[in-house]
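ok posting inputs for the zinc ion job
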Amino acid sequence: MKASINPLAYCEGGFLGGHLGIHDKIKPLLKSATASFGITALNELQELYNGKSLVEDGQFAIDVMKYINQKVAQFKKEDGHMYALYGTPAENLCGLQVQQFRKKYGIVPNVSDKPYVSNSFHCHVSEHITPIQKQDLEKRFWDLMNGGKIQYVKYPLDYNTDAVKTLVLRAMDMGFYEGVNLSLSYCDDCGHQELNMDVCPKCGSRNLTKIDRMNGYLSYSRVKGDSRLADHKMDEIADRVSM
Ligand SMILES: [Zn+2]
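and the output
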């Protein structure tokens, strides 16, 4: 890569030693940089291994993460570079990966039969588990993703702020960086609001605005009836129970 790929970092001093000419190669600066590797679809990995989800089992996925962490430690020692593993939602890749997998292996139940793979180390969005169960299950992976991660729970609690607070405090005790997922839908025709709806129960309109959490951010998943998100992510939203 040439320095001009990111002038602020490599040419204007944004990164340590970043005073290269625009045509210079960035290699000399990489010694002080961290190379991050995003990991996703651990739920599907466990399913592929023994037909169980991260909720039903998860040990194989944990063993794989431990193995990768050992390899990272070994490579760091060998070449002195910094590597990091992070749990990623892979917002476009999570759809592309399924297509790539299907080309090679076809449709495997609970692995490649949906248009997306699960984010990071998160339990599948369709699992019927409580927020407390989800926190406990995901805690197992917490120290194995030290390049970046989040634990989040969708609170099926009609904006019960005391309950949300209790669960956030529990997450803080567990050392999490905790995301609180609250969705909201409102009808652009009659103004009716509720947590989640695809058709307005008051007036029957589909002209809705919906806010959902996606890839770590609250976003409009629908504006005046139209989606603003990729199809495979809309499919994931439709499957959500406990995410
Ligand atoms: Zn309405």
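notes: Residues 8 and 14 are 5 Å apart (CA to CA). The two ends are 38 Å apart (CA to CA).
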